[in-house]
Amino acid sequence: MRNLLIVAIISIFFMGCSKTIETVNIIKVKPKLKISNMILKIPINFTDKGYKNLETKVITKKEELDKFTKEIKSQKGWSKKDNFLDIIEKSKIDFTQDNLLIYTFKESNYKTVTAVDVPISENGNIVVKIGVEDIKGKKPKKEKIINYALIYKVKKSAKAIIFDNGEEKITINNKEIQGTNKNTL
Asked: What is the pTM assigned to this prediction?
């Protein structure tokens, strides 16, 4: 036991006295992107057959929301329509401060939507990155289209929301601030 202790002490001594050259690599790091507090994601099912009935839109008034929910109630082909409507109702949108953004998109079942990032502020806009990748390995026999939707509560002061899937950027103007009833898609 004593010999083991002596060997350990001598090893530490030689390691401490040995000349080693350490290099430090300086890595420049980009400043962290600022997470936007002007947008809040409302949790809904990411896919539903009923999303084929929806279009991307910004709802700015309670009356528009009422008309939208009435249209949905009359539609067929939804998997979880009641859940979708319940979530919208419980989200309590204060239209004096916020708009409701419904963003829809479609992808082939030959692709996989891997992630929807946290919205960030960039040059006065809100940017949401969506990860989409081709399926690796064996693909489904028949191609079909999958409908996706995201819903956000957006502050009226936000200029635009940009959805970036790596291949294209889709800009949606926040209607209230733009003073128009048209979206840029």
From this structure: 0.71
